[in-house]
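Need Prepilin leader peptidase/N-methyltransferase's 3D structure for a figure. Predict it.
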Amino acid sequence: MSEFISILSQNLWLFSIISFIFSAVIGSFLNVVIHRFPVMLKREWQQECNQYLNEYHEKLIAPISEQLNNPIDDYPERYNLVVPASACPKCKTNIKPWHNLPIVGWLMLKGKCAACGTSISPRYPIIELLTGLAVALLAYHFGPGWEFIFATVLTFVLIALTGIDLDEMLLPDQLTLPLLWLGLLINLNGTFASPTDAMIGAAAGYLSLWSVFWAFKLLTGKEGMGYGDFKLLAVFGAWFGWQMLPLIILLSSLVGAIVGIGLIVTKKINKTNPIPFGPYIAAAGWIAMIWGSDITNWYLSTL
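Structure prediction for Prepilin leader peptidase/N-methyltransferase:
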């Protein structure tokens, strides 16, 4: 095993290619997580509501279900990340294993269902390709080792969170909080930051956006962002220390402003439409993981 790792260390391109193939397969699973996990959460929330409502109040549940993007009644009773098998949403034909191959499967089908010809969103191969490329870059940057493994896990969850937030305006605690605790644990031996910097980073990441949230709400009476955004920034503070937080906030705000203005100018949204901020935090945090020190040093050298 040590000899194999040594070979990969000396041939980072080979390691990157292997990582790309493996991660593209995981990207296919992340598509399932992005689509199904919110439905699973909504079912769980409705079950919790049912526990507190008697038969007379059950009539209140129907309006709630109607407001969901994917009404939970449209899905089979047994519904999780594994069951049922992937199928066409229109004709319900199960997708054959070879059609589920990352990227290649979508190209083989020419972006259409093999049974009924319904268009398949290009988002599926895009996520698979993005996952593969991101982890391949991590492999080339870190090489084989614990840093690469932890960074890969972080990347997988960030991609899932980004997709869910874009679809549902939601950053589930079930994904953000484990990342937060994992970041603190892996930095007990200083993997990415010292334990002290990680703990301060987690607190500072959360409290910085929490303070902005309440200041904005007190001034305008409106909520400018969700609590999930606070937790996601706390995740990056826990993983990479408080020193990376200013860069992450700056990058995410800059990209978010550019994208938001672009959408308004092109009239794809209006000024009153909410825009998920989680994807910009995730992208900025991922960039800081690889190039954060270089960007900071470059900036300081220009002062």
